[in-house]
Amino acid sequence: MKIFPSTAYYFILTSLLAALISCSSEKVKPVVDYTIEDTHIPVQESWNSQIIFSENGAVKAKLYSDHIRMYNEPREKLLTTVKIDFYNSQGQPRSKLTSKRGRVDDITENMYAIDSVVAVNDSSGIQLETDELMWRKKDEKIVTDKFVRITTEDEIIEGYGFESDQSLRNYIIYDITYQTTMKKKN
To answer: Which segments within 72-186 are labelled E, that is strand?
Structure first.
């Protein structure tokens, strides 16, 4: 006995195949988010990095950071966990600076230390504490208009506004709010 499918069978099979083919040929377009602006995306990132600042072959400062993000607009580097070593003209360390965050202006090469800033002179032990300061490259000065605390072996001085050479030897506190002398131990 010969078995031939009926016309209804062919119709159902053809309909199912057409439905499957039309489903698989449907193109799905991905959703694109255009809300992110490219100026907020770093052009380069690095971790556990070092930047050396030099002039005429002489090292002026070495900057260490856990995370550096470089941007084209504005031309700057944003830093996380910052440590900077400043050097004298003979290449010897003069002072150190640490902060939780920082920024380097790529045009002026000024460096900004932000949040829990501590700077210490290696030879004299003078310590500066503040929330924010700037190292100006053009005159190698450390400046801030924020609250500062200077601790030496002889005294503690607190106030607002500060300017110093990068070795912290010659400094000015513009608005002194507190000053005390330390007793020397015999």
So the answer is: 76-87, 93-105, 111-121, 127-136, 141-151, 155-165, 171-181
Residue 164 Cα to chain centre, angstroms: 23
Exposure string of 2-34, with b = 16+ CB inside 10 Å and e = fewer, is: eeeeeeeeeeeeeeeeeeeeeeeeeeeeeeeee
Q: Per CATH, the architecture of 43-181 is what?
A: Sandwich (2.60)
Entry pTM: 0.73
Q: Is pLDDT at 3 greater than 80 in this prediction? A: no
- Residue count of the chain: 186
Average pLDDT, the chain: 85
- Number of Cβ within 10 Å of residue 111's Cβ equals 25
Domains of the chain by residue range: 43-181
Instruction: Give the C-alpha separation, 97 to 176, whole Å.
Output: 22
